[in-house]
UniProtKB/TrEMBL annotation, chain A:
InterPro entries: ETF_a/b_N, ETF_a/FixB, ETF_asu_C, ETF_asu_C_CS. It comes from the Bacteria. This is Electron transfer flavoprotein subunit alpha/FixB family protein. Its cofactor is FAD. Residues 9-188 form the Electron transfer flavoprotein alpha/beta-subunit N-terminal domain. It comes from Nocardioides panacis. GO terms for biological process: fatty acid beta-oxidation using acyl-CoA dehydrogenase. One of its GO terms (molecular function) is flavin adenine dinucleotide binding. Keywords: Electron transport, Transport.
Automatic annotation (TrEMBL), chain B:
Keywords: Electron transport, Transport. One of its GO terms (cellular component) is cytosol. GO terms for molecular function: electron transfer activity. It holds the Pfam family ETF. Heterodimer of an alpha and a beta subunit. Its cofactor is FAD. This is Electron transfer flavoprotein alpha/beta-subunit N-terminal domain-containing protein. InterPro entries: ETF_a/b_N (IPR014730), ETF_b (IPR012255). Residues 24-209 form the Electron transfer flavoprotein alpha/beta-subunit N-terminal domain. The keyword Electron transport applies.
């Protein structure tokens, strides 16, 4: 067996009530391709069972940073923890979430190195060359990370999360982090719960009913919302819909909205501009409903119905109700 | 009174398909219009609001070719009060280089008597998506930074900042000025330029700066496009008559409750 190209890769793990978040588990899966020991960093209290879960994903060392500096989020303090945990790691990664990209940008500044956001492929490990999403994922940029420590985030859905063939029993390593007052200058002082969300857990939805300009106005969503209810789906909209004030921004799918990858995306009255495509192109099946048979969304879809969504969606709803009864 | 510097970037206004230059190092934008990122539209809006609310100024800055004056004039037409063009080949500047060039302008203006309480940027540019110029700038200027900002409110020497939290709620920061903030779309509605605004914008002189910093570059080796897939769309029908075929498909996919 040839020696590993990289001694270790350090992954900043984000957690929720269920353990490591799905995108963090994707990142742990992705970095196993680097042929290096996988180390994880957990900041603050981790949920119970997290260490075992990380072991199942092949993590050999879990660095743990805890204390007053981490009771509320401060990106610079998290970055100080990452730097303290680097050790002999030559690659530092996190999921390409807002938090992951933010902390890694701080880390890159502290280490004086390049950072590549939203990587989807490793082209070469020596030298380390990666491909990352640009233009909202419509193109890839090949970039060489040849500084002493390579810092990159892993784009959502770059791979499916998968446990390692052989699980490990990680060594838990509490770390002392020197957090300065300057690191806490931008710190969360309080949080507020989100607004009631008719998008219904958009990012995790198995089915998304998408709506674009073809909805015709703020009052043009009744049939679409009924379809979301009948399919236990979430509503996602294009940027033009939020720009016109027809629906709130948190329902926006696309480059500057949510990225979704449901089993089914029903694109109703959406032309398929690159910026929207960037947010939903990883859907397993795409069904387009559009008056224009040459619209990019139609030609790129797996299935299509040609016509006015205001005639077609009510008919689908009626057929669903009829079969249910 | 708050002086705000808001940084924007001229980017291709993409339509349905992208093509690359012959050397694959850039998007072929010869037949495309240009714009700025949606995040930056919101950053400009916030800059104008802060300047008006506090009786301060809103200076817009970009790094790029002289063509980028078009985007500066647009921001002036909306209500920015001054503009700076850092004239350079943007493609030769990586995120660390851009941050260094902006920091040089901030320091030079400060030395000349104009300090900026806030520097606003878009959270990420819609072309390169680097997610780091704002953070790098904060380190160079030794100022606090918050990314992904939706709304903000300046009060005295502090700014109250709101942005999304990972669980879908809102995170609130209370940060001392001066500070660097990167703005995400969704918190404010950008305004449209008025005709008087456009007329006024034409008369404002754009300060031109030549960067002294030698760029290290973005590290780009090339751009790649995904292979074109032939259309494999299966048309289920036209109009409401296709409803049965659609529901058949939904059942086949197992998504009908």
């Amino acid at each position: 067996m040839s020696p590993a190209t990289h001694a270790a890769v350090l992954v900043l793990v984000e957690t929720d009530g269920g353990g490591a978040t799905e995108v963090s588990r994707e990142t742990l899966t992705f970095v196993r391709g680097l042929d290096a020991d996988v180390h994880a960093l957990v900041v603050g209290d981790g949920p119970s069972g997290l260490v075992d879960q990380l072991g199942a994903y092949g993590v050999s060392v879990v660095h743990h940073a805890d204390g007053d500096a981490f009771t509320s989020y401060a990106a610079a303090a998290w970055a100080a923890a990452v730097v303290a945990a680097v050790g002999d790691a030559t690659v530092v990664t996190a999921a390409g979430t807002p938090r992951g990209n933010e902390v890694l940008a701080h880390v890159a500044c502290r280490l004086g190195v390049t950072m590549a956001a939203n990587v989807v492929e490793v082209d070469s490990t020596s030298p380390l060359v990666v491909s990352r999403q640009v233009l909202g994922g419509s193109a890839l940029e090949e970039i060489a990370l040849t500084d002493g420590v390579a810092v990159f985030s892993v784009a959502g859905h770059a791979c499916d999360p998968a446990e390692a063939e052989t699980s490990t029993t990680p060594v838990v390593h509490p770390i002392d982090v020197a957090v300065s007052d300057a690191d806490l200058r931008a710190r969360v002082v309080r949080t507020e719960p989100g607004e009631p969300d008719e998008s219904g857990g958009l990012k995790a939805a198995r089915v998304v009913v998408g709506a674009g300009r073809g909805a015709g106005g703020a009052d043009g969503f009744a049939d679409l919302l009924e379809l979301t209810e009948l399919l236990d789906a979430s509503l996602g909209v294009s940027r033009v819909v939020t720009s016109l004030g027809w629906r709130p921004h948190h329902e926006q799918v696309g480059q500057t909205g949510s990225r979704v990858s449901p089993d089914l995306y029903v694109a109703c009255g959406i032309s398929g501009a690159i910026q929207h495509w960037a947010g939903m192109s990883s859907s397993k099946t795409i069904l387009a409903i559009n008056t224009d048979p040459d619209a990019p969304m139609v030609t790129k879809a797996h299935y299509a119905v040609i016509g006015d969504l205001h005639e077609i969606v009510p008919a689908i709803n009626e057929e669903l109700r009829r079969r249910r009864s | 009174m708050s002086n705000v510097l808001v940084c924007i970037k001229r980017v291709p206004d993409l339509g349905g398909e992208i093509s690359l230059t012959a050397d694959a190092m850039a998007v072929d934008d010869s037949s495309l219009g240009h714009t700025v990122s949606p995040h930056e539209d919101c950053a400009v809006e916030l800059a104008i609001q802060v300047a008006k609310d506090t009786g301060g100024t809103a200076t817009v800055l970009t790094l790029g070719s002289s063509d980028a004056v078009e985007q500066l004039r647009n921001a002036l037409a909306l209500g920015c009060t001054a503009a700076v063009l850092v004239e350079a080949d943007a493609g030769a500047f990586g995120p660390a280089d851009v941050a260094a060039a902006i920091a040089d302008v901030v320091r030079a203006h400060e030395a000349a008597g104009t300090s900026y309480d806030l520097v606003l940027l878009g959270n990420d540019a819609s072309d390169t998506g680097d997610f780091q110029v704002g953070v790098r700038l904060s380190y160079l200027l030794d100022r606090p930074v918050v990314t992904g900002v939706s709304t903000l409110s300046v009060s005295g020497d502090r700014v109250d900042v709101r942005g999304s939290s990972p669980d879908g709620g809102t995170e609130i920061f209370d940060v001392a000025l001066p500070a660097v903030l990167t703005v995400s779309e969704g918190g404010v509605e950008p305004r449209y330029p008025s005709i008087p605004g456009r007329m006024k914008a034409k008369k404002i002189a754009v300060e031109e700066v030549v960067p002294t910093h030698e760029p290290a570059g973005p590290g780009r080796r090339r751009l790649k496009l995904p292979p074109l897939q032939p259309s494999q769309v299966e048309v289920l029908g036209e109009g409401p008559a296709a409803a049965g075929a659609v529901v058949d498909l939904l059942e086949k996919l197992g998504v009908v409750r």
